[in-house]
Design goal:
The complex is a heterodimer of chains A (802) and B (299). With 802 residues, chain A is an alpha+beta fold. Helices cover 27% and strands 25% of the residues of chain A. Classes of the chains: A alpha+beta (802), B alpha+beta (299). At the A-B interface, strand 1, helix 3, helix 8 and helix 18 of A face helix 10 of B.
């Protein structure tokens, strides 16, 4: 039998780390404990904006604590997320702050033999602050004479002044937008707002650092990239990289909040170096909630169309309140524009984005980056246009989306590729059928207390930020992998690529198994660290399987060629005549010659032959960059039920579709969609953060009890969440695979807003759509209907200008 | 400076005792006075200690005091103060006769808190949002308060003195919660509105009705998270007592509730939202209780 079928890829197998995770034996950063370890605690500013006048640590030191203040740390300014290349990297922070720029900013740290003593020492420290103007809104920040949050930032080695607290601006122009709008027969314009929600990952940021006898350090920490953490720590503390070792430990979720080196990581290193002993810092939930939030958005989108719905021009203006530090506003603004450009065909477009500092928690990437924000504006406005023109939103979107042969902007203008796989028609048709799209009610037709509505939105995420250019990239994007054949025919996959919990490492092991031709269980995922693994930029941009998997595939191809080379010698045939296939009965890969059936041996036989004859170890170490960034398309159909008396919105059913190319593990890919729905529901309906306009304090004060996220109790019944996959093959992906993770969330808030419109006939342009907002909108609708029935002029539901 | 408060690290030092009987517990309380705090499930006390809102010298665990645990059915019901919320919610003795209490326990945030938290702890913590409080109020509960050598019985309606405050004196322990047998034809219900299911209420309400044919012969309505303590709404109760149990009557009573409560705006909800949904859940609860009373749930 000669089989070309994939065995591991496509099989819904148990993930290799599943058993250790469900039994609790897996080691996450908070589980790390090393001999003689002390515990660190971080003093965080209670002021949103204040100069630090003086610091007195004597009482803490009297308790036996070691203290780390601004005077103790390198004064080097850095950016904690070194995914961007130096010309695109805005450096505005130090290990502990020279001045407090948000409530919760790290001012100093202490270490003591126990966490309790460290906590008491922390409370003994005295810091005198001189409060400055607290800026909590973009309007305040932009006002002439507003206190500067940063005077300058460091950009590519140069000190760049910051004016009016504007951190960065970007513009993108395609075609002639003025001419385009002149041709438009109808123009729609709306302003959309999304909130600064907390990532709510399970694992609060945790780090342990052990100084080594040779002057080096070993670090175990929450991170999405052990190598970027290593590079930064080397730069900050002036250590050669071969003396900085960052160990890969399981990550208890991150949703993007550990793309950057987390704030506690360099603090812990500073404490450990000063104390001359290992130190661990485990952030409390309260600290963590003051440490990172999603980029919010205020987006004004204007679309010009012909009467048949053809898009002729578009303009988007985005204002982003990034909080106290610029972690990645430049790529965020580019991503926002690029995601918009890639949704629907627009011959003329103009984009301008502005990121503005404020004295609030710094914002950073979160599942989808700028895509959910762009999808919210575009998918809601497209829905509104379709309704205004009497078109079915599904048909309308199918007619105008950017698909096969079009250009996809992976994450802004710097990463573009031609679309080679496109499952959008299948996704939308299947989703519509599963949810019963044709049976959805007419918007605003219901009158009872409970009103149901179905909404749809579509979109994508990129699969990595690969591109074709040889130099001048905005972002770094490459991965490495080592594959080696063990002496019994099993294989080790050594890859620094982090798994957020979605099963990325397991998926890549399947790809390696199928490429070589061995059963999936024969490929083990090795523990590793920065010293024993190749560089991987970070697990972000839905690049894990597409980019990291491709690097491992490259190494697997080399290992396979070597196996065939030696097997051919033993079997006395040409290597080109051999194939390797998994044999489930033998539990081994079998190398054989289809033309000479008796010439066969197992991969284990090959390995033993090499070992006994001292012929060496078969291995390959490969590094690669994808030159494409294909769209991982996704479709969302959700059904909600609105209680018009309490304003609560319940999610009743969902049909979620993914075009991730070849589905590497259907169970886990489906899990990504279900998880995306849960997180998307929180973003759309529940989660929000507020900062006191006077003090700049977080309203929840970091208490989880007031930072609510949906749980299983808010989810539809398991059978009412339907997932499906497009039957596509991405020619540039490993075995045809693209990404799924972030795509699984991106259209969610738009789909919910469209579903609520379907139920109530009311459009919401701001998330979360909370019960209080629903009740206010219903009251407004009722007042308007009363006016209408009295014969007064009814205001148009949409400001449609001709 | 709240920035460094947190709900994980128990930094202050304190002594810990685990008496095996009430007598031993009373002795410890007498010795340490206000410096001692009682620990039942710990779901409130430990959080407050971590946040340093409370800094007791001595924590007295009641886990070893067996006489506080358990539910006894007599004419009415006696529930030991140390009985967990989970046990109360699953007790057949609570069952349909005390439906509001059962529903309040089932609405109790998360499973882990249901298994750790106790009925006595929930009321002694005296949160205006305590889920069991409105239910116990409509079941006409009283609490047995014991101290070394004496015991007193206080109607629950007189037990709460303000947010976090009760009429308990130093040295006293709530040992039991007693519920009288409901009158024939009684039905009760509990409703809660919260941001998500695993949450403290924005508003919660319990009602009980005594039904005689088409007429209401007895009525209690109580709410949480709408005043400094859990409260009953006398004017709404009076409006229903003697009235016919119609949708209209329930809506009018709910309207009175919305007028008479004095909620505040906070991080969980605005004052106006609380008033609005209080009306809805009271009306819903009245409908349910009326139906249950008609089904002879107490017979």
């Amino acid at each position: 039998m000669l089989s070309t079928e994939l065995k591991s890829v496509g099989d819904a197998s148990w993930r290799k780390d599943g058993l250790s995770k469900v039994t609790g034996s897996e080691k996450y950063a908070p589980d790390v404990s090393v001999d003689r370890m002390w515990h660190g605690r971080v003093l965080r500013s209670p002021h949103a904006h204040a100069r630090i006048v003086s610091v007195d640590t004597s009482a803490a030191e009297a308790l036996g604590a070691v203290c780390l203040t601004y005077d103790d740390v390198p004064k080097m300014r850095y950016n904690e997320r070194i995914v961007s290349t130096p010309p695109c990297l805005y450096r505005d922070r130090t290990v502990v702050a020279d001045k407090a720029r948000h409530v919760g900013e790290a001012v100093l740290a202490v270490a003591a033999p126990t966490e309790e003593l460290a906590e008491r020492a922390l409370r003994a420290v005295r810091v005198e602050y001189a409060p400055l103007q607290v800026i909590t809104t973009m309007e305040q920040a932009l006002k002439d004479g507003a206190d500067p949050i940063h005077d300058t930032v460091l950009l590519d080695g140069k000190d760049v002044p910051i004016r009016n607290n504007v951190a960065v601006q970007r513009t993108i122009d395609v075609g002639d937008v003025e001419k385009g709008f002149a041709e438009a027969e109808l123009v729609f314009e709306r302003t959309f707002r999304t909130s600064r929600i907390y990532h709510a990952q399970m694992e609060p940021k945790t780090v342990t650092c052990r100084p080594e006898i040779d002057g080096g350090i070993t670090v175990w920490c929450s991170t999405q990239s052990i190598h970027n953490t290593r590079i930064l720590l080397g730069q900050i503390y002036g250590l050669p990289l071969n003396k900085v070792n960052v160990v890969k430990v399981a990550l208890g979720g991150a949703f993007g909040s550990s793309i950057q080196m987390n704030s506690v990581t360099p603090i812990c290193v500073g404490l450990a170096l000063k104390a001359g002993r290992p130190v661990k810092i485990a952030s409390t939930r309260e600290e963590d909630m003051h440490d990172h939030v999603r980029y919010p958005s205020q987006i004004t989108l204007k679309l010009g169309v012909r009467k048949d719905g053809t898009l002729v021009a578009g303009e988007m203006r985005a204002e982003i309140d990034i909080g106290a530090h610029n972690i990645q506003a430049y790529p965020f603004l580019g991503g926002l524009g690029g995601f918009w450009a890639s949704l629907y065909k627009l011959p003329n477009m103009k984009y301008s984005g502005r990121a503005i500092y404020s004295n609030k928690t710094p914002s950073c990437a979160m599942q989808g980056f700028g895509a959910p924000q762009a999808h919210f504006a575009v998918e809601c406005l497209m829905d509104e246009i379709a309704h205004a023109l009497g078109l079915d939103p599904v048909d309308y979107k199918l007619r105008h989306y950017v698909g096969l042969g079009g250009t996809f902007w992976g994450q802004g203008p710097a990463s573009k590729c031609i679309i080679r796989s496109d499952g959008v028609p299948e996704l939308l048709r299947t989703g519509a059928e599963k949810i019963g799209w044709d049976k959805r009610p007419k918007p605003g037709s219901q009158t009872g207390r409970m009103r149901r509505g179905i909404g749809m939105a579509r979109g994508f995420h990129t699969s990595g930020v690969g591109h074709a250019k040889a130099s001048g990239a905005e972002m770094i994007d490459y991965s490495g992998a080592i594959v080696k054949l063990n002496e019994d025919g099993t294989l080790d996959l050594i890859q620094s690529l982090m798994d957020h919990g979605g099963g990325t490492n397991h998926a890549i092991a399947k790809i390696v198994a199928d490429e070589i031709g061995v059963p999936g269980h024969m490929v083990g995922i090795s523990p590793c660290d920065t010293r024993t693994s190749l560089y991987d930029v970070t697990t972000h941009a839905t690049r894990g399987v597409y980019a990291g998997g491709a690097a491992a595939l490259k190494a697997a191809k080399s290992v396979k060629a070597q196996i065939l080379h030696w097997a051919a010698r033993v079997l006395d045939v040409l290597p080109e005549s051999l194939v390797i296939e998994p044999d489930d009965n033998l539990g081994q890969g079998v190398v054989y010659c289809p033309n000479l059936a008796e010439r066969r041996m197992t991969v284990g036989d090959v390995a033993r032959y090499l070992h006994i004859n001292s012929l060496g170890t078969i291995s390959a170490s490969e590094s690669m960059r994808q030159v494409n960034c294909p769209p991982a398309y996704v479709s969302y159909f959700v059904e909600v039920e609105v209680d018009t008396e309490t304003g609560q919105i319940h999610t009743r059913r969902a049909a979620l579709g993914s075009d991730c190319g070849t589905v590497v593990n259907p169970a886990l890919a489906s899990g990504q969609l279900v998880g995306g729905l849960s997180k998307g529901q929180g973003y759309a309906l529940i989660e929000d953060n507020h900062w006191d306009p006077v003090t700049g304090e977080l309203a929840s004060k970091g208490f989880w009890v007031d930072g609510k996220t949906p749980s299983m109790a808010e989810a539809p019944l398991a059978d009412d969440i339907m997932t499906h996959f497009a039957h596509t093959y991405e020619p540039t992906g490993p075995f045809g695979a693209k990404g799924v993770g972030e795509a699984a969330k991106n259209p969610a808030i738009a789909a919910f807003a469209n579903a609520v419109h379907n139920a109530l006939g009311i459009r919401f342009y701001e998330v979360p759509i909370t019960p209080e907002k629903v009740l206010a909108a219903l009251a407004g609708q009722e007042a308007q209907q009363r006016d209408t029935s009295k014969g007064r002029a009814r205001t148009a539901p949409a400001p449609v200008a001709e | 400076m709240y920035m460094n408060t947190n709900t994980r690290i128990l930094a202050p030092e304190f002594d810990f005792a685990r008496p095996a009987s009430l007598a031993e517990a009373f002795a410890l309380l007498r010795k340490h006075g206000r410096g001692a705090r009682l620990l039942a499930g710990g779901t409130d006390l430990l959080v407050q200690m971590k946040m340093e809102r409370l800094s007791p010298e001595l924590v007295v665990s009641l886990a070893g005091v067996k006489e506080l645990d358990g539910i006894t059915m007599g004419d009415g019901l006696t529930i030991g103060a140390g009985t967990t919320i989970q046990s109360v919610s699953r007790s057949p003795a609570v069952g349909a006769r005390f439906a509001a209490l059962r529903e309040a326990c089932n609405a109790f945030s998360t499973v882990s808190i249901m298994y750790m938290g106790t009925l006595g702890g929930n009321i002694c913590n005296a949160s205006p949002a305590a889920d069991t409080a409105p239910a116990l109020l409509v079941h006409d509960a009283s609490v047995i308060i014991a101290s070394a050598g004496s015991e007193r019985r206080v109607p629950l309606a007189e037990f709460f003195a303000g947010p976090g405050k009760t009429v308990l004196k130093p040295g006293e322990i709530v040992t039991e919660v007693r519920l009288p047998a409901p009158a024939a034809g009684t039905g009760s219900a509990f409703r809660k509105i919260s941001r998500v299911v695993a949450d403290i209420s924005q508003v919660c309400a319990a009602v009980s009705l005594v039904r005689d044919g088409a007429r209401i012969t007895g009525c209690r309505i109580a709410l949480g998270s709408v005043a400094p303590t859990p409260v009953r709404v006398a004017r709404a109760e009076a409006a229903l007592t003697g009235a016919e149990g119609t949708a209209d009557a329930f809506a009018k009573a709910a309207e009175i509730v919305a007028e008479d409560i004095r909620p505040i705006s906070d991080v969980r909800a605005s004052e106006s939202y609380r008033r609005h949904v209080a009306r809805t859940i009271v009306r819903d609860a009245l409908q349910t209780a009326w139906q249950r009373a008609g089904e002879g749930a107490t017979k």
